[in-house]
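Following up on my earlier thread - several people asked me to post the actual chain instead of describing it. Fair enough. Here it is, all 291 residues.
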Amino acid sequence: MTPFTLPGFDLDRFVRDTLAEDLGEGLPGGGRDVTSESVIPAEARFEGVMDTRDAIVVAGLPVAAAFFRALDPAIAIEILAEEGARVPAGTDVMRLSGSARAMLTAERSALNTVQHLSGIATLTRAYVDAMRTDGANPDCTLLDTRKTLPGLRALEKYATRQGGAANHRMGLWDAAMIKDNHVAVAGGVGEAVRRAAAAGVAEIVCEVDRIDQIEPALVAGATRLLLDNMDPPTLREAVALVAGRVPTEASGGITLETIAAKAATGVDYVSVGRLTQSAPAADIGLDFTPL
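Reply from S.P.:
Thanks for posting it. Predicted structure:
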């Protein structure tokens, strides 16, 4: 199997730290799975099947597998569904066979991860589908945001990609995003953008929530405009004013019910924070059978 890698993400450390948290390493009496150690014989072996009880978009199975391998390097694992695949309820997504204790100890960490990531991927695909309703603006791209859980950004943004979105900024380092608080301190949209441009920043995204802010931002050197909390008629006006000079992005409170109308205005991107901020966990279970 090809190793699971993401830029800026250390899978081994993530697995190690997550298991250490669950096992209580460093705490009085911690460092062990007291239930499995006391109830399950050391030599016992299990066969397990992970399946989804919901229709989902799959994300995170290689990460889930890494938890089991960390505790039983000899475990046999068969991943039955591709990352990013849409599968119906009742689909088996992973089969595994190995040490019963190891599998029980890793179970919750593995399931938490794949449930969370598949939940994000599933909600993301729902937004992509809604955005394409009636063929509205097929060239519009759905973006995620930085509204991620601390320590999980790389994984959560991976999950949005599996659902069909593209990543916005990965962090504070890869582009400037000038928002209302930056504008307030700088004294205006144009001055805030000018300062970023003077500092040599290559990508400058500027948030505007009024039509009269568009031209000052463009003249000062903005490379993308984030059109915040604008209704569809105002978005259409803004897109016409920009006239292809820079990409445009609609954002702010966008729901499954409103995304098609926003995309249909001609914006290049629609960004949705709730992809990572509010996605419910997918209902995925793991059933074991003694061997």
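The mean pLDDT is 96. That should answer part of your original question.
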